[in-house]
Amino acid sequence: MWKVESAEKYDEVDESASSSSPICRNRAATIPTADAVNLICGAKTQSNPENTVGVLTMAGKGVRVLVTPTSDLGKILACMHGLEIGGEMNLAAGIQVAQLALKHRQNKKQQQRIIVFAGSPVKYDKKVLELIGRKLKKNSVALDIVNFGEEDEEKREKLEALLAAVNNNDSSHIVHVPPGPSALSDVLISTPIFTGDGEGGSGFAAAAAAAAAGGVSGFEFGVDPNLDPELALALRVSMEEERARQEAAAKKAAEEAAKQEKGEQQSTSQDATMTENVDPGTSESDKKTHDLMDDENALLQQALAMSMDDSSSTVAVRDTDMSDASADDHDLQLALQLSVQEGAVDQSNQTDMNKLLADQSFVSSILTSLPGVDPNDPHVKDLLASMQSQSELVLQVSPKWRDSETKMS
Amino acid sequence: MSAESASAIHRNQVDLLDFVDWSSVECLNQKNSHSLPNALKQGYREDEGLILESDADEQLLIYIPFNQVVKLHSIAIEGPEDEGNVDPILNAIFKFPGPKTVKLFANREHMGFSNVNDFPPSDTVILSTENLKGKPVIVKYVKFQNVRSLTVFIEDNQSGSDITKVQKIVLYGTTVETTDMKSLKKIEDH
């Protein structure tokens, strides 16, 4: 069968052409051809709404266009359904008809692509194929070849030559599928034919890959997207939301760090209790936090950062903290509010805290007492080193910040 | 015989470069590294290092739409000189890989190499080596009075080699309407 695609930048028209051969002993391979075609058609239509896909066969009586390029997946699946497998394929004629079908596509802005499923041997010689390939390249038609069926060295060489003739900037690909127990569609999923679709198709591919990975356990989140699509979707969405939130918070932290370079100072002792409660997603203006995704490390960083924070910056960040954390944790909110008040009122403690936290040994003892913290962790070590250097800076800056602090409160 | 004196002869003819609709410009069978903007765009086309080259064979099909209707007066196609070959005989042959036979089609959209011979061209131009140095060729003006898009089909080149090289393509003509739709502002109700 030939799959002919035409697309505009990202959207494509595909025409799928496949042949099946009686030489292919492993009958099981013939049925998955239909699956593979369906998979690819689905991926293409999903990846861009303007994509259109058509299907034609080239074995048997002659080249026959089953479906002209359409974005209606149902039509394509329907025509695949009644297909008979048999005969030898006529590669040259198939490609030419596919090219013609592409030429008469409705949306001329679409890019053109042909996907060939070559099961039976190739009876044309290399020269002819190269000529065809050059003609395709000239008309800017990309070509993907799926070489399956019996292992045939000559066929392999010919198809490689064809690909070389048509390939322009790596837009064309070839996949050799060895005969074996694994299904054609499974092998195809990991190939650039599939993954060349871009992000849209990859979602489809990922779900299919999860299914192919074998058994119920292979599914993402342990839920079969086919059996319970809503649940699978909800799980995936919530994961992504969490990830996006963490990334946004980390980004914010990086931005604030850029803004307030010198503003790192000690703050109140309430921070120690806050450590446990603070949501890692609201990490603060320590420059080094933005690399950490690990919860415990983030917590630790948070604690140290907060204790080193400039009091006014702490207030600013805490304001944002409170809006972020509002949905999450009542205790957290209370703790935050308390510490804000403490910070505003209690200035005299600061210099003491400076000295305390500047003391390396004190800090390491705190660290070891915290659950799940490894003082040998490189991140922790970095932070400790930075604290050392910044404690002096802190003392100088404090008077100015104190004033603005009181204004804010 | 320079390009300047040639264009000075044709008064009121402007370079139609400003009216080209760049978003829809297409070129078939060009090499990715040596593409159409090298020959068409201001600045690129002056640079002798930047040329448009054909890929699979020596033909090129260039589709140039305009953002308004224009009249085409003349076209100048410059080709590079290749001094690569040492052999004097070969040198004479391969010296000019620039275009020779150029067919122009007015207002034909999305042509392909297969149907390019199905329509009679609006004009056919055979370039001499002088033209390749920049002398514009005057086209059949009557055929190009109302041009929305121009398709340039380069059929073969001077040296008969497999790769056609184009240094520069300049289109001279005038506009038909002087209204620039983009600068039209909405009239407020008084």
UniProtKB/TrEMBL annotation, chain A:
<dbReference type="Pfam" id="PF13519">
    <property type="entry name" value="VWA_2"/>
</dbReference>
<comment type="similarity">
    <text>Belongs to the proteasome subunit S5A family.</text>
</comment>
<feature type="region of interest" description="Disordered">
    <location>
        <begin position="246"/>
        <end position="289"/>
    </location>
</feature>
<dbReference type="InterPro" id="IPR049590">
    <property type="entry name" value="PSMD4_RAZUL-like"/>
</dbReference>
<dbReference type="InterPro" id="IPR002035">
    <property type="entry name" value="VWF_A"/>
</dbReference>
<dbReference type="InterPro" id="IPR036465">
    <property type="entry name" value="vWFA_dom_sf"/>
</dbReference>
<protein>
    <recommendedName>
        <fullName>26S proteasome non-ATPase regulatory subunit 4 homolog</fullName>
    </recommendedName>
</protein>
<dbReference type="GO" id="GO:0008540">
    <property type="term" value="C:proteasome regulatory particle, base subcomplex"/>
</dbReference>
<feature type="domain" description="VWFA">
    <location>
        <begin position="13"/>
        <end position="119"/>
    </location>
</feature>
<keyword id="KW-0647">Proteasome</keyword>
<feature type="compositionally biased region" description="Basic and acidic residues">
    <location>
        <begin position="246"/>
        <end position="264"/>
    </location>
</feature>
<feature type="compositionally biased region" description="Basic and acidic residues">
    <location>
        <begin position="1"/>
        <end position="10"/>
    </location>
</feature>
<dbReference type="InterPro" id="IPR003903">
    <property type="entry name" value="UIM_dom"/>
</dbReference>
<dbReference type="GO" id="GO:0031593">
    <property type="term" value="F:polyubiquitin modification-dependent protein binding"/>
</dbReference>
<dbReference type="GO" id="GO:0043161">
    <property type="term" value="P:proteasome-mediated ubiquitin-dependent protein catabolic process"/>
</dbReference>
<dbReference type="Pfam" id="PF02809">
    <property type="entry name" value="UIM"/>
</dbReference>
<dbReference type="GO" id="GO:0005829">
    <property type="term" value="C:cytosol"/>
</dbReference>
<feature type="compositionally biased region" description="Polar residues">
    <location>
        <begin position="267"/>
        <end position="283"/>
    </location>
</feature>
<dbReference type="InterPro" id="IPR027040">
    <property type="entry name" value="PSMD4"/>
</dbReference>
<keyword id="KW-0677">Repeat</keyword>
<dbReference type="GO" id="GO:0005634">
    <property type="term" value="C:nucleus"/>
</dbReference>
<feature type="region of interest" description="Disordered">
    <location>
        <begin position="1"/>
        <end position="22"/>
    </location>
</feature>
TrEMBL record, chain B:
<protein>
    <submittedName>
        <fullName>PITH domain-containing protein</fullName>
    </submittedName>
</protein>
<dbReference type="InterPro" id="IPR010400">
    <property type="entry name" value="PITH_dom"/>
</dbReference>
<dbReference type="InterPro" id="IPR045099">
    <property type="entry name" value="PITH1-like"/>
</dbReference>
<comment type="similarity">
    <text>Belongs to the PITHD1 family.</text>
</comment>
<dbReference type="InterPro" id="IPR037047">
    <property type="entry name" value="PITH_dom_sf"/>
</dbReference>
<dbReference type="Pfam" id="PF06201">
    <property type="entry name" value="PITH"/>
</dbReference>
<feature type="domain" description="PITH">
    <location>
        <begin position="5"/>
        <end position="190"/>
    </location>
</feature>
<dbReference type="InterPro" id="IPR008979">
    <property type="entry name" value="Galactose-bd-like_sf"/>
</dbReference>
<dbReference type="GO" id="GO:0005737">
    <property type="term" value="C:cytoplasm"/>
</dbReference>
